Each structure stands twice: as structure tokens, then as C-alpha cells.
Amino acid sequence: MTIYDDVHSRYITDLFAVEDEALRGVAARAAQAGLPGISIKPEEGRFLQVLVRACGARKALEIGTLGGYSGTWIARGLAPGGRLITLEKEAHHAEVARQTFAQAGVADRVEVRLGDAHVLLETLAGEGPFDFVFIDAEKPGYASYLDWALENLCPGGVVAAHNAFRKGSVAGDAPPDDYTALMRAFNRRFASEPRLLTTIFPAGDGTLVGVKLA
Ligand code: SAH
Ligand code: DHB
Ligand code: MG
To answer: Which of 26, 98, 171, 213 is deepest in the core (most CB within 10 A)?
Structure first.
């Protein structure tokens, strides 16, 4: 018998991932600004928030800001005095995200950096080590983002990466798309990476999570 289904996803969301006004407003504002509706789901956001707090993160990094929806959940999980740096290559997305962070009351804790993450990460290495890294930008970049995270996470730090299921195409019946093979390879690498203790959190589109071993 399968118990975890949409009904239970809704049950978790209604109990644990309740959006406040700021989070509720992101989707509409982002849509109005022409951003794609590809933010993580509330349930996934709550999971990130719990992860961030569980590892006591004071220095968090996000790759792929969009409208600031996931960044708000991450920022709200930070330990007191903690900071989130979030990377975004589209100026328009970064602008919407800055509004989101202001409305959510986390603007003092969040810095949006505009540019190609691959370039920005070169300087960010000097600002580490990081306690938490969330990867949710272009899928071909995932392998090198994970390389960077492995080099720049402290022991006990956590790396998470979105879209492990690639809309149901990596393991399910959904037709494979351009990035299906890539995400299958990425998931296999995650599963066999000796420097991480890993799994996939199965809500939404699946979030890979790994704890950096000493
Ligand atoms: N994490 C967001 C969703 C991110 S969508 C949320 O859940 O709310 C992916 C974002 O990554 C898009 O805004 C896209 O512009 C950005 N992106 C894609 N490639 C990038 C790159 N190379 N460097 C920085 N940002 C990138
Ligand atoms: C899509 C969804 C995502 O969560 C993402 O990070 C990139 C693309 C999509 O549905 O196309
Ligand atoms: Mg995603």
C-alpha cells in the first residue's frame, strides 16, 4: 500500500509548511513579472528550512535565486546572526527576489549576487567554508556546483540539490527530457560520493541531500 501520495503531501503542507503573507505573495508577483513558475513547493521549502537549522547554518549559499521563494525559507532557517548569499544570472529575477526578501523581513540576512554562478563561485571560495549549499540553477552546471560544494562545505555541512526526479522522468513513467540522463548520472554520483552521507527527500520534484563527512 502506498501511503505517501498527494493527500499526504497536502497534509504535511497544511500542518508544517504554512505560508505567511510574504511567501503566499511570491508566486503572483513573480508571474506578473514574467518569471517562470518553477519555484520549489512549500513542503520542499519547509524541508530546507529544517535542514538549515539542523546543521546550525550561519553561512548559507543558494545557486539559482529566481523570485526568492526558496531563499526565504532558507533565510528563515538560519541560526541567529546567519547569512544567505544567493546567486542569480538574470537581473530581472534578482530584482524580484530583492523585493521578496524585503517583504519577508529577511533582507538584512540575504545578499543577492548578480552574475553567472560559475564566475561568482570563484570569488566565493575565499568567503567560506559554508554550512549549507542549495543547488537549483541550470542542470548542466550541477556537476561543477557539487564539486564546489564538496570543496567549500565544512564537516557536518549540508548540500541539497533540487529536481532529482526531473518531473518523474528519472525513475518513473514520464517521458525523458533533455536533462533526464544528466540528472540520472548526477543522482548516481550523489549516491556513491564517499565524502557525503546522502539520500533524496521525495516531496515535490525530489531534493538530493548530503551531509559532508569530516
Ligand atoms: N531556487 C528558486 C528557483 C530557481 S529556478 C526557488 O525555488 O524559488 C533557476 C534559477 O537559476 C533561474 O532564476 C535562472 O535564471 C538561474 N540560473 C540559471 N543558470 C544560472 C547560472 N549559470 N548562474 C546563476 N543563475 C542561474
Ligand atoms: C524546471 C523546474 C525546476 O525546479 C528547475 O529548477 C528548473 C526547471 C522546469 O520545470 O522546467
Ligand atoms: Mg528546481
So the answer is: 26
